[in-house]
Amino acid sequence: xxxxxxxxxxxxxxxxxxxxxxxxxxxxxxxxxxxxxxxxxxxxxxxxxxxxxxxxxxxxxxxxxxxxxxxxxxxxxxxxxxxxxxxxxxxxxxxxxxxxxxxxxxxxxxxxxxxxxxxxxxxxxxxxxxxxxxxxxxxxxxxxxxxxxxxxxxxxxxxxxxxxxxxxxxxxxxxxxxxxxxxxxxxxxxxxxxxxxxxxxxxxxxxxxxxxxxxxxxxxxxxxxxxxxxxxxxxxxxxxxxxxxxxxxxxxxxxxxxxxxxxxxxxxxxxxxxxxxxxxxxxxxxxxxxxxxxxxxxxxxxxxxxxxxxxxxxxxxxxxxxxxxxxxxxxxxxx
Length: 335
Known about the structure:
By secondary structure, this protein is α/β, with parallel strands linked by helices. Helices cover 34% and strands 22% of the residues.
């Protein structure tokens, strides 16, 4: 008799479906069971408001979590950067798989790079974090740009460039990789120019917290897809975000990386994984969206071996950033 299919809850967007399809394939391999995708519409998918207006935090996640808790799906896949920093007690992050390229990228007209855009270039992005850092970089390097708030899926955003309404848009490399459109990128933004969102490029596989034998077995099976380095990194980044009391639409960038590996991994060199690394670097930035005021700090320590150590790394850096005035740069802090 064929085992009952596992039900994977996913958002309906092309990117979410691609991500979930890749996870479904991996889950089939570790469990030997069929996996079916259950499409769920979230508030963030239907609202036309800008993320900063609707609060950002959890708007793409709540409907998926509700379906999990009602038993309509067995597990769900999220873009980790969309997850609120507080984890519900009855749900567990069973796996954080190996992270994709965390960088932001530019898709610009005429195959232009960011620094080659004409004076007054209009750059579209929905993220205050990107606006803050692009405007700060432009100010520091004598570039003249205008950041324009936009919403929409990848097709919609790139469409603004093709239609001539914008000179460029900023997107996440990971998303374009996952839907097979990375060749449309005209410039990869170094993390020294724009720090990504906490958790960017990583996925979160979430399920119920193991109150039944079925749930406990699924938590264990999904755990085989977990990557300890990625989990430690995103735990530190999200701890920083939480300690700043900021939501995922706040102008906060953070990246925990392994300095000897970061450059080859950014280039997509799979051999980089084989090297022994003992230190993790965590960088954080917060700024006003016009880029006039920024607090940017970093810290380096041993690669955290426990959740608590990774959390402490993020909290410690956040404390230093708050001491330098970070709270005043975020507008209204999310409670």
